[in-house]
Each structure stands twice: as C-alpha cells, then as structure tokens.
C-alpha cells in the first residue's frame, strides 16, 4: 500500500468490493451538521420515546427518569466517539475494521451477530412504525378497523397493509443509496421535534405548568431504586448497542475527526436528553389527563380522534421519524455486514433489501407487548455486543496505537491473518465479556450483575483483550498521512 494514499494493492475479491473499500477523500463530505441531523433522525423515534416515557410508568420521579436518560447518553457518546475514530481516519466500515482484532475470517461471527441484532430491531421498529401508518389511514378511511377482521399469521388485514406500506417505504429509501439516506435525515429529525413540542405544550397545559410535572414522587427507595435505575440505563444503552459497533459505517464519510466529534455531541447527548425530557413531560401529562401513563405515542395521538388533523400530522411525523432511524440504525449496518460475507455478489442496495426481507420473519407482532419488556431485551443485546465494542476500541487505541495497515484488511496474507484468519484471543475476550455481562440472567445469586451488563461487558471484553494481546507481536505499519484533525 502507498502510505500517502488509500489505494489498495491486489485486494482479494472475497474481502473487497467498492462499497467496502476506503471512501476517497473527495467523497468524504459529511460535515458536523450532517451528523447532528443524522442523530436527530435516529433518536427521535417511537422506541426512544417509549423507553424514556416508560421510566415514569416504572415508578420513577421526573428527576430520576431524567438522570437515567442523561447517564445513558454520556456513556453512549463516549463509546461512540472512541469507535468512530478509525472509521473517520481510514474511511472503512465496521465489518472491515473488525478484521484487525478478530481476523479476516474470525470477524464473520461478531459481524453476523450484530447484523441479526440490527435486523431484529428493524422488525420491531417497522412494526411499531406501521401503527403510525394505520393511524394515518384510519383518519381518511373510516372502515379501516373493520377490515382487520380478516387475519393472517397473527395480524389483521389492515395491519398487514400498514406494515407492507411501511416496508415498501424502507425499500424505496434504501434503493437510492447512502447519499439519499443522508439527505432524508436532514429533515426527518426536526419534523418529529415539532410534534413533540406540540405534545409538551398540551402536557404543560393539562398539568397547569412545570410544578406538577416535576413534583411526581418516586415509588422506589434505597436499593430497589438503584437496581431499577441502572437496569434502565443499560437498557437505553442496549437499544443503541448496534450503533456503537457500526458507527464507522457512518463516520467513514466524515470530512474530519472534528466534524464527527462535534456533530455527534450535538446530535446525541444534547438532543437525546432534550427529547427524553419531552417524552417524560408528555408521559406525566398523560397520567394527569387520563389517570394512567400512556407511553405509546400512537396510542396517545388516537386520544385526539375528535381532532383528525392532529392525529394525521402527528402520525405522519412519527412515521417519518421511525423510518429514518430504522434505515440508518438497522438497515445500513446489516447491509454492510452481509456485503462483508459476499463482497463479489452484493452491493449496498441488494444487501439492504435482503436485510429487510429477513426482518419480516422476526414477526414482532406475535410477541411485542410494551416498552417495559424492552428494557430487559435491550439490556441483553447490550451485554452481548458490549464486549465486541470494548475489543475494537482497545485494539485501535492501545494495541495498535491508532495505526492500522490498510492493505492488510483486504488480503489473506497480512497483519490480520493470525491463525488462518482467526484470532483466538479476541474470541476468548468476547466470551469472558458476554459471560460476565449475562450470567445474572441464569444464575439467581448473581442477578445483581445483570443490572450493569453493558458496563461489565465492554470493560471485561476490552481489558481481557488487552492483556491477552500483550504477548502478540504487532508489526509496525507506515503512518497514514491525513489532512484531518487527529482524534488523540
């Protein structure tokens, strides 16, 4: 490899195609504003709303719920910043970068685990978003509910029409590639903010000001509170665990490290805390207005049936917001992951369509109940993927000292060959991290550990990898000449 360029010399066709190759400097045109809007689109969605709102339904006070939102976002942005650096520097996606720590063959397993987790979340978001589609149709077609009498595979005909419509919208966005995704995010995020602000105004009017909203008393005390608090924090982190890993898929298009750092800081912790606060205020308002917390925003909108325009515009905003997060968080990532398996046969569009087809078979309508159950599920996801994030971060910053051999990512006889393409040390570290993170689910006496599953997973996975790799001889690599600001 020429150390002054991103040119790959004699790449192996089984490891390389144009979508997996380094993004050329001239095509890295995402500024900090792009990342701010990108995150606004990803976090302003129904699942994020339900996760924040359900903290009130669990019994937390407004202040406790807000604290959980803030802590989860601080942890998220730190992990995301660290794992964004290599993607920005080398212009490479997650399934390529992970070859450095797991080997070019060994990378397939964590990549596919992460891919199927993303597809799983796609199915959940698609199902939830289809409810917004149904709400829109119900306003313009009074007989919408009646056609639900015809059922198939657990859903009525009306729900299948709504789900199919929403699925086709995903296919349309994906078919236009990554640049269409970026442009779509520029207006999808702000749209739902308008809806949320309208609902906040309604909640404050119902509650007669901020005083009653922030006077909600907690149902927890002592150890019970801290257990619920950290379970909620890890659950909210788990909901974005896939993005911690595949964030290089997005930051590989960044103009500089500075752009992705500033843009993500504005878009994630600041805007997510603001959105979380709005969700909490609205949920408290529903408790005052209806005598019980309503954490589902579509169900809340349907309380305003006497004002069809409110339901119509609100459901449309939720539909667009959910579509935006689903494409970026749960389709872009598995698309790159599937391309990594068959780079000579798949491109971004083909792999993205395959991902959303697979997503249908998760059939969330058969088991999805409410946001409270998502905390345990999201926590398990975070506990599984946390160790992989820890390994990637430690490999880049402390094992490789921020220097990768670019050409070795695309050849079978390079630095990332290890033992016939597998790095056993990475697998041992991953196994240790997953066991420690999830053991509380199966061993009652260690149940308290599960409360901190993501934190334990990323720490144990990363530290184990560091100590296991100390005996491994890392070859020196040429320094990649960059025009952008250093992350360090």
TrEMBL record:
Similarity comment text for this entry: Belongs to the purine-cytosine permease (2.A.39) family.
InterPro entries assigned: NCS1, Pur-cyt_permease, Uracil/uridine/allantoin_perm
Lineage of origin: Bacteria, Bacillati, Bacillota, Bacilli, Bacillales
Main location: membrane
Keyword Ubl conjugation: no
Protein keywords: Membrane, Transmembrane, Transmembrane helix
Cellular compartments annotated: Membrane
Membrane topology (UniProt): Multi-pass membrane protein
Protein name in UniProt: NCS1 family nucleobase:cation symporter-1
Organism of provenance: Neobacillus pocheonensis
Residue stretches spanning the membrane: 37-57, 63-82, 111-130, 150-174, 186-204, 224-245, 266-290, 310-336, 348-368, 374-399, 426-443, 449-468
Origin superkingdom: Bacteria
